[in-house]
Design a protein that fits this description.
Blueprint: H1 2-12, E1 30-32, H2 35-43, H3 46-56, H4 62-69, H5 73-85, E2 89-95, E3 100-105, H6 107-110, H7 113-126, E4 135-139, E5 144-145, E6 149-152, E7 164-168, E8 174-176, H8 199-207, H9 210-220, H10 226-233, H11 237-250, E9 253-259, E10 264-269, H12 271-275, H13 277-291, E11 298-302, E12 307-309, E13 311-314, E14 327-331, E15 333-335, E16 341-343
Antiparallel strand pairs: 1-8, 2-3, 4-5, 4-14, 6-13, 7-11, 9-10, 11-12, 15-16
Length: about 350
């Protein structure tokens, strides 16, 4: 009887499962160290770009930015604070009672100007808009209307994508993905068009998106096939398909059949795509100067002259590097009181 009771007690005792061991922490996603990517992480936010652009046109005060861009007050406050923390802007008091501040470009912020001009020239040449060329640039140092180019610092000649090779620099390697390089809905790219006609905005509508930029970068580094992009970027197939299709639609890539049954395609840079190389390496040079801690991830060699070089944006007339304080512009359009853009005759 006792044995029977004990057996019954044993059979009715609740069973307690041991807790499963904790799942190992997911490894952070890694990405190639890249000075262009670090810079794009700032410019890929449309609101931040617009604030920087208006600073280059002379805006300094909160009310000016709000009137020019129509940003909500909270959004503008957040972007001004972020750009100040990033070192692009500095906050300067201009009135003590009540306290009022201006936001001025730092040396780091002003140094973005050549990169902006490289993107402007690409937009002027390749992307449709009204007007096609919004600004006529004047290089005050030589007094000439100019169409700046991206040139080799060693020989002074214009740099073309097929004339450059690269090797790892002291900053090469992999790092956790930046939170700033976040995904953005494609509809958000329309925000780049706020305020005024801008060829820089047109360019960033193509390359400002996180994944579009990365896919374009890997194409310049030699990737051509879907599986190559997928392996290098650790990107989901549906996102990669979308970005490749988008770059084909924009004319940056072209598809070339390399296998039948099943059909397989390579994605090659078009002439338009190759022309993006100048803006890419101009942005790279800025990122190397300000975001790489003195350790550039890539060293570029200009095969046309055989020397390592730093990309420079120069005046096509006097061949001197351009800077924001040496440039002026003439608008090829007017904006009416109701916001209509009217192209000037002959523009």
């Amino acid at each position: 009887m006792k044995a029977s009771s004990a057996k019954a007690a044993k059979s009715t005792a609740p069973v307690v499962d041991e807790a499963p061991p904790p799942a190992p922490a997911a490894s952070p996603a890694l990405e190639r160290n890249c000075s262009v990517g670090r810079a794009i992480s700032i410019l890929s936010d449309a609101w931040s770009f617009l604030v920087i652009r208006e600073c280059l046109f002379g805006a300094k005060r909160f009310g000016q930015f709000q009137a020019l861009l129509g940003l909500p007050r909270a959004t503008l406050t957040e972007r001004l604070t972020r750009l100040t923390e990033q070192g692009i802007l500095k906050k300067v008091s201009y009135l003590a009672h009540p306290p009022r501040y201006e936001y001025r470009l730092t040396t780091m912020g002003l140094d973005l100007y050549p990169s902006m001009i490289a993107m402007l020239r690409f937009g002027d040449q390749w992307l449709k808009g009204v007007p096609q060329v919004p600004l006529r640039l004047i290089h005050r140092s030589c007094g000439c209307a100019c169409e700046p180019i991206v040139a080799c610092s060693a020989c002074g000649e214009e740099v073309r994508a097929r004339e450059v090779i690269y090797r790892d620099g002291p900053g090469a390697g992999m790092s956790p993905s930046s939170d700033l390089l976040r995904s953005r809905r494609s509809s958000d790219s329309e925000q780049y068009n706020r305020g005024r006609p801008s060829s820089v905005s047109r360019t960033l509508q193509i390359i400002g998106d996180r994944w579009t930029f990365k896919v374009s970068r890997e194409a310049f580094l030699g990737a051509r096939r879907f599986d190559e992009f997928e392996a290098r970027l650790n990107i989901s197939p549906n996102i990669l398909t979308d970005r490749l299709n988008r770059l084909v639609e924009h004319g940056v890539f072209e598809r070339r059949l390399y296998q039948k049954l099943p059909d397989r395609f390579e994605y090659r840079l078009t002439e338009m795509g190759l022309a993006l190389y100048g803006p890419f390496i101009a942005i790279l040079a800025w990122g190397d100067r300000w975001l790489a801690n003195g350790k550039p991830p890539l060293i570029l060699t200009h095969t046309a002259c055989g020397h390592d070089f730093t990309p420079e944006v120069i005046c096509d007339k006097c061949r001197k590097p351009i800077a924001a304080w040496e440039m002026s512009y003439e608008r090829n359009y007017d904006i009416t009181e109701d916001g209509e853009i009217r192209v000037k005759p002959g523009a």
